[in-house]
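Researcher: Sequence of S-adenosyl-L-methionine-dependent methyltransferase follows. Predict its structure.
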Amino acid sequence: MGRGRRHRGTTSKRNQIDNSNENVEKPLASFDSNNFQKPICSNLHFEEYYKEQRIVKAEEWDSFMEFLRKPLPAAFRVNSNGQFCDEIRLKVENDFMKSLQAEAVESGELEAIKPLPWYPKNLAWHSNFSRKEIRKNQILERFHEFLKLETEVGNMTRQESVSMVPPLFLDVHPDHFVLDMCAAPGSKTFQLLEIIHESSEPGSLPNGMVVANDVDYKRSNLLIHQTKRTCTTNLMVTNNEGQHFPSCNTKRTLSVASEINPHPIDQLLFDRVLCDVPCSGDGTLRKAPDIWRRWNSGSGNGLHSLQVVLAMRGLSLLKVGGRMIYSTCSMNPIEDEAVVAEILRRCGCSVELVDVSDKLPELIRRPGLTKWKVHDRGGWYRSYKDVPKSQRDGVLRSMFPSGKSDKDSTGGGNSYEEMAYISSDESAVEVCDLPLERCMRILPHDQNTGGFFIAVLHKVSPLPEFQEKINHRRNSFTRNNINSSEKSSYEAVSDTVVTKPEEGAEEIVLEATVSENGFNPPEKESTCDEGIVELAQKLDDMGGKREVPSLQGKWKGLYPVVFLRDKTVIDGIKTFYGIKDESFPLYGHLVTRNSDISSHGNVKRIYYVSKAVKDVLELNFAVGKPLKISSVGLKIFEKQSAKECEANCCSFRITSEGLHVILPYMTKQILYATMADFKNLLQHKSIKFLDFIHPQIGEKAAKLALGSCVMVLVDDTQLGSEPVKVKTSTIAIGCWKGKASLTVMVTTVDCHQLIERLSDRSKEVEIAENCLKTAETA
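Model: Prediction complete. Tokens:
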């Protein structure tokens, strides 16, 4: 069965004054042509700034600006581990690529859609049509509807092409623990989950997991909605500040850790970290032209300190031997190379910048800059010694290539020769001798994309001890404990980008409270979407009674979850569906929300978590719950309030999203059907046992126990030779067996998508059979 992604730290991914949906990665045709009728696609300060920084050669400047002023082409990606991955890719290649070509020629484009040459297996595509153009005629409208449907059910993701790049350089394996520090809106998280699941066998769960973090709970809801389409048990969404993300180290915790049994992990460290930080976002000018009118160099300067602190925290959470990606959607060297240079200086020999120039050779990118200048309202500065003392609160030494002033010769443990000078007509310009050319700059006019910056970092040894202490201290204290230079810069960011907590920002703060019976849940109701598992809590073993908690600070948007320990419920599910615990363990892997428990103690929804997620949940309990978990687990069972339920009927039905996880371990309540009966049920939604096309299928349906069951599609030759081994290609749907009929328990959208897929398969089979007959006749 297949599976159907910006505080970031403290703010949104792009440095925008408002918090509108512009922060969201746009759907296909990610721009509305109405926004570009009278665009303001110029900013004199922008042009002067980047000419001075020399990010492109003089002869390229006009081309660079021309592309920046054009709307961004839309892009989309096929889910690599989706059940219909190959079929969807072939449909794009053989159907839409050809049928849309005439429209492309009419619009003056050479190609309507084309695969991104650097993305593996032709799974990512670039379109030259706007949303208005897609709706212009019947062919384009059909393409648009196809994209919407496949995206909704999780088979595709509409995502800016440069946004797809960082996960490809992260080199994620299925057993890796991965942290996406500033994850909303979630398209990169979706990609990481695809990679985690890609090589897993049907019915087996990866040993790794992804922790997707975003400080803004509203943006977390968007992140949860995006990643919910992956139908994964291996994801945890958290609402911590990225620069204070906890390592959950039991050695530093004296609370309840000693009262709980030893855990498989004693500290939360990661094999891979994606640190895609908040930035000024001028690389997104093509999809967000409003940035033109309000761009200024101060935006990048104000975010520099936060970006450094986020990157350092990411490296602190990274295992030795692990890899971290630092990336921005900004072209500003103050947010890009200056941040990388500063973290290399702080980390010394413990971290190295990786040369990945031999990877993805068809992706055109440019080496990082080794020299740049700093600009603020006082003008241009070539070194920190030129900055007046009155300006040093906003212009920091870490912004310069050397990271030093003339009075400071200590570099925080750096092993590189950090700085040289070259002559210019005006004054000496600093040149950084760190290997910043290993960084990657993606510019819009190279491959008709947005702008992006990527640096790949490898942790070769533990960070210098004093840096670890600094990181721990920052993680333990509030933002008021940040040193003066960082604090001034942080406050500057807060004033222009994010609402401060004391001014009404909906910051999430929870001080864990412990009673004699365990962890008490908050009493606030959730604002998250139905079906989302939120803050993990330990259930009181003494009957599951919920106590009123005492909260400190603010709590908005989150609600606690408890481990399900009701033996009667779990044993009833195991018996009804024929699940053996040794093959598919339920105890310790099932959780539910407090809001899903009625006043009578009845559970409404049950969620399943992988072993990796389970271990992290238990670790979080042990150290006092510093992780503010907003989503965890895959909804696998839901209580069905059916009047037909009898004494031997399990009232918990299997959900559509959880079906692929549990089906390989079921030995009961399975009905095998051929294509004709399968499609007939999807089209009519409910069929009486006597009305099945194949009478034997209706007879077997009648013999099933009342309640939830699963219909599995098989070939005519397999009918009667059950059970059939579940494969990745196996198609199945959840149903409800009543007294006289079988009813499908699938959404209308899923039904429509599945009917289309089956129709395509039927056509392919018919064509193949006709070809075979023709060949035999010849």
